[in-house]
Amino acid sequence: xxxxxxxxxxxxxxxxxxxxxxxxxxxxxxxxxxxxxxxxxxxxxxxxxxxxxxxxxxxxxxxxxxxxxxxxxxxxxxxxxxxxxxxxxxxxxxxxxxxxxxxxxxxxxxxxxxxxxxxxxxxxxxxxxxxxxxxxxxxxxxxxxxxxxxxxxxxxxxxxxxxxxxxxxxxxxxxxx
Length: 177
Known about the structure:
11% helix; protease inhibitor; disulfide bond; five-stranded antiparallel sheet; globular; 11 strands; two-stranded antiparallel sheet; Metalloproteinase inhibitor 4; CATH 2.40.50.120; metalloprotease inhibitor; 33% strand; 2 domains; TIMP; Tissue inhibitor of metalloproteinase-1. Chain B, domain 1; mainly beta
């Protein structure tokens, strides 16, 4: 699940059957701007553990910051967000990332990103893009993350594509996914 939202409030909540401080959650009230699938229009709250040691995240709840957030829909219908999810202020995204959200990223849903941590490294199948930001830049937000999208090409393989508007459907060739 991927959404663009503002956080308009927060409060600490506990499961009704527990008094343990380790089970307490922060309930963030969100104002949805845009979402990636039909069910997100009903989301009003996101939950995260109170403690960062339990993967909890701290969001600005002043209703001033827009976020791009990924998370998980739980079986009870609640949405959780944690340190392993994408939590990025909208203004921190590059123009390529913002454009790719509308045009390119969904065409990469069938692709897998293979992380390169040390040399040598290579993809093991056509449906993979080799991510080298960590190796080359020692960063999770290097050139590939900020300016490229891993997308499926017309031949079924996956490759990195520099952001931009979608190609004209009448003029799609082998250099375009």
